[in-house]
Amino acid sequence: MTHTANYRLPAEWEPQAGVLIAWPHAGTDWADRLAGVETTYVALAAAVTRFEPLHIIVADAALRERARLAIEEAGADMARVHFIELPYDDTWLRDSGPITLTGPDGVLLNDYRFTGWGGKFGAEQDDAIIAGLLQRGVLSGLPHKRIDWALEGGGIESDGQGTILTTWKCLAQRHPELSRESMTDTLATTLHASRVLWLEHGYLEGDDTDAHIDTLARFSPDGGIVYQACDDASDPHFAELGQMAAELAELRSPAGEPYPLHPLPWAQPILDEGRRLAASYANYLIVNGAVLVPAYGDRADAEAARIIGLAHPGREVVQVPCRPLIWQNGSLHCITMQLPAAIAQ
């Protein structure tokens, strides 16, 4: 491997070769509500294949056929669908999939240690997904770097120009023995970043990722930051997300300018057997020519889609029903991992 210093973590709005997902089945945590969550996966498959290829990891041939029939019936472009048989614990590919750097010499697949969000869940098979993809000829021939350091893709956000945005709460939970300076150095070194911005505040009740940045704040191609706001003073999130908004207002771009900020509306509390679910509109997915936005059946859905569309000019906005996903505390971005266009070159 040469010239690794020239690699960078591209922004998600840069051209993509496809999106990677894993289909839910009875052996995953979705077992109790499989039919419901499949409706989201089917809608996602139909939406993604309008714009680019979709790579679907399935546990076996029977699940492959089940998924194929469902997405074909929903009108997915089957010429853009590729199945990969591989064992997995669950379906959160944002956190167990490859974090792909790009550079003049091609790509570098960063394979960080996946610990089930700090040991909360079994993760042995998920931690082996990237190696499994390589063994099965997917991503084969690409430089691959195993990094024995816990990090999930949902925990970092890149502007494509060397800036990484993350949250202190998440990384401090993963590495309680390490200093801020040490973690900043590891992130900057392994992601070839020039700077790391840390948020002290921001969380969603029901989120078991320890405040992943992709549920809170995202860089946007207009040079701004889209973030989840809370305008309900009676809501327990009001103070914390207000403090996060103040932090974001203090951040500066590489040019020393304040970031234009795009606050997202707040969905009404969604409860499941008394448990608050983490309904974030910031957990959207960018694909070639479009941005796929979570919809929760809430009156704020349309306004969230409008604001995200404004922050991603020139892209079609497609709403995907995501209420079933938040039963397991994640949303659209969490179940997907984009593959940069350089992978296909």
From TrEMBL:
Q: Which GO terms describe its biological process?
A: putrescine biosynthetic process
Would I find Transferase among this entry's keywords? no
Write out the entry's keywords from A to Z.
Hydrolase
Tell me where the signal peptide lies.
Answer: none
A molecular function (GO) held by this record is: agmatine deiminase activity
- Can you tell which superkingdom this protein's organism belongs to? Bacteria
Report the protein name in the record: Agmatine deiminase
- This chain's source organism reads Luteibacter yeojuensis
